Batch of 3 targets.
Target 1
Amino acid sequence: MDTAELYDDHDRERLVPEPPKRVDAPVRTAFERDRARLVHAAAFRRLAAKTQVVGPQTDDFVRNRLTHSLEVAQVARDLSKALGSQPDIAETAALAHDLGHPPFGHNGERVLAELSEPCGGFEGNAQTLRLLTRLEAKTVDADGRSVGLNLTRATLDACTKYPWPREHAERPAGVHADGSPRVIRKFGVYDDDKPVFGWVRDGAPLDGGGIRQCLEAQVMDLADDVAYSVHDVEDGVVAGRVDLTRLDTAAVWTTVRDWYLPAATDDELDAALAGLRAQASWPDVAHDGSRRALAALKNLTSDLIGRFCGAVQHATFGAAEGPFVRYRADLVVPHETRLEVAILKGIAAHYVMQAEDRVALMVRQRTLLAELVEELLRRGPDALEPPYAGDWRAADDDRARLRVVVDQVASLTDASAVAWHRELVASR
């Protein structure tokens, strides 16, 4: 059976109905059109100039948000295809998963969350939903209001990593992949986007409080975890900060517990590392930067991704008969796989993300964004890009105007945030 046939008209529904395409246009499924719209979106292009772990201008090898998203999409597509679900849905969700991140990654998210408290807070995943259904212009409704890219319900649901509002979010704990502390609640929708969120989640099961991710969102979530755990280590090895043959396991295990798995024991982590080291491609000599070493490192990253996804696929097939679509099944991630992924995260965190130069830079970035928000609020619509200036003029109160400024700042790349600050704040 074609995987698209596992999805019904309700899954393919769009906020604004669209007429059939021209008879001479290429024949594509609704989910293929979703993917194309995302790839052509301006917000997607901007990811090339947004921080992943280190800034995109610091090195031409390390990942930025765009390259990371492409790698997550490849993992998500392959795993989705192996499970028999619709790979275009999982791939589009993976491509979109970081759209809402502001300049300077989670560090910038922290600043905007603090400053936007009067208008309901800020969260990168909630901002992604806002972009897809409001801010990224592609389609308007009968009243002339933007409905964003007008993606299908199934695709938008797959993009919803945290399917609950702020008031239902748990208290933050641990650390983000870029080393910044988790100080804001994780949620997927702002108050004024709840109507469209309700439309997206129509048909979601109510068991467990109605906050269950669809299977495609679970695939996207895992693919993100796998990709950055493996690739952050790869970047660290090439940068000369990580030597996989000489790990200070006591220090790394402390970081793993502090940042990711508080309950993990030394014995569990030792056994999981032994499993990773048993991989034939795990290095037994230090990386020397040669083509031979680079090829070996690339083989290791490929083997690790295959190891993690293979274990999840096997466990998922063992837990249910499927089909592995929407809410008919859940992804199963073995405990051993979670430990192995956490070890890789811990290695990158200990050797790369806790460096003193990064900590000092992050303080400067937070100051810059705070000053920029303050100045834009003072100047008003004349300092905003035309779409946001229109939103400002349509806003009813200061709360709504603050949200407009936050939307504008969140849309900026790292470089444009610096440039706007230089022009509007530093030049005063």
Target 2
Amino acid sequence: MKVECYGASRPRDGGTGNEDAFWIWRPSSIVAALCDGAGAAQHCAAHVLRLFARQIEGGLLQVQSFPAWAHWVRSTDGALAGGSETTFVGVAVVGDRVLGAYTGDSRAYLVNEGGCRILSEQSGRRIGTGEAEASPIHEPLDPHDTLLLMSDGAWTPLPLTIIHRTVMAARMQDFADLPSMLIDVAGKHGRADDMTVVALRRR
């Protein structure tokens, strides 16, 4: 099974920094994560992703087990409580399924010919509040399905119909361009917030 995964991020109009960050790991299987820092917190988003990357690269986080994801979120939240805050949404491709977790208002979507569906309905508290609790992502990943991770700056301007239409229109183009295409559509009237999109597709 071949899985493609790419991401793109742009700061808000006039912004001097980007509070969003994303990370993609490809060595044996695909793992991807996105964070959106709150309130001049770009260092928090990047820091949390570095912590996550160490767990994945070191084989310390068992991605096929949601309790492992939930434990990592709780322990990271406890370590950062009282400081800067960040959302988290992360997924791993395990066989023909995608597994992961999220907390905060960054979103995951599953897009295919049948439509576009939000996989992260309950937003939860951000990491750093001391009250973050992970919610699970556990979905079949069929051929030609596209999974999106999006920060609120990217998803807020886009109804499900526009996300679906953009993904379907991009099917015959280079998949690496899809994250930037979604950001272009979301920001066509200006970027009021940092925008980040990670796109993953099973071929």
Target 3
Amino acid sequence: MTTIRQDDVIQSVADALQYISYYHPKDFVQAVTAAYEREESQAARDAMAQILINSRMCAEGRRPICQDTGIVTVFLRIGMGVRWDATMSVEDMVNEGVRRAYTHQDNVLRASVLQDPAGARRNSGDNTPAVIHMEVVPGDTVEVELAAKGGGSEAKAKFAMLNPSDSIVDWVLKTVPTMGAGWCPPGILGIGIGGTAEKAMVQAKEACMESIDIHELRERGPSSKAEELRLEIFDRVNELGIGAQGLGGLTTVLDVKIKDYPTHAANLPVAMIPNCAATRHAHFVLDGTGPAELTPPSLDDWPEITWDAGDSARRVNLDTVTREEVASWQPGETLLLSGKMLTGRDAAHKRIADLFARGEALPEGVDFNNRFIYYVGPVDPVRDEVVGPAGPTTATRMDKFTGQMLERTGLLGMIGKAERGPEAVQAIRDNQAVYLMAVGGAAYLVSKAIRTSRVVAFEDLGMEAIHEFEVEDMPVTVAVDAAGQSVHDTGPREWRDRIAGIPVRTEPA
């Protein structure tokens, strides 16, 4: 009988979460590198270059790949022959490991978990509790799979109860375009088929933790219907032309993973959960000999890639930029931003909207007139850092506030990740504003452009407080111009036609 000690569980969970915060899985790095090398879309290629450079920087500096360090999901397979040397419950041991990982002084991770989700939405402060699934199985070990799942990709989870005669492929192809780019492609699609509604969702999440091996499957050929589906969905989703960061290109998904389970004759439950460019998961086994050891990868596993904005990039001084200057920016154009910007995301926007509803003014020191707002919730700094990893959050969540912000504050532009919805695009066009896109999944790289940081309002909101950043040469892409043209519409449409062999139109139809 194996004895599993309490401290070994806690230490193993904490170590694994620290490990995955800064080390991408080797198979993911290899898959993105291969996609980068074959990519023909310059915008998508540039985005993947930034993702790979950021990944290597994080491995070297042991700092988070993404500012969204995720909500922790843990799958435990506990052997029936295990004996516990513990005073805490298994859930409490796991959560103590999470707590230690996220408050580690050398690599503080962002606490994103909110208690009372339908009410006050108070931050727990240490990213607990984790979402824990336990299974008792034959054996005398404890097998652990854990992931730190980003909110942007989790928000794009989909479920459908199809009829038994319906096509799963058709549902996926109809659904993926509705997910936009907020899940930070290129990534992995985890698909769960069968069981019941909740079983399908759990299977999809488990599938996200599997290794990338689609090319090996293609070489050996499928041996089951699920494997045939993997290959068909992989090919046909990539033919959609969505591309890295939704900018249009050859690679949208790096792999499609499927898990299935017997289901009722009347049902065909299907769940789909994407894993983003900050894919983070680990697998280890506790056998009673001590904490798990995860071997650091070699830096040789990362490609030697350099990237710069190029001679065509336009340098912008945020402190002097005018509305007339903004009106000259073109969709897809690369900008290098320098100067001061304010930050704000969901909670800050809600609080500002509430102030306006009560007829109250913005807090002292908060002036958005002719300025830019960056949708970000940064990681706390460590050592001599000005700020921790500070990549963009999904902009569409701020769409409902955009018209009010532009009309009532004089805001000139916004910076985030992924596309904007029709409501926001209309507001941008009506107010002659602009939306700029930073690369999701390159948070540590982006943070190196931030020279100073200070909280100017709503300090109680933690990572969602309003900061003022001073940046130097922060790279962004013009995603929606002052006329309302969006690269997230034009890019994928162009590359879908290219992939299908349809001549690309250069003039409006």
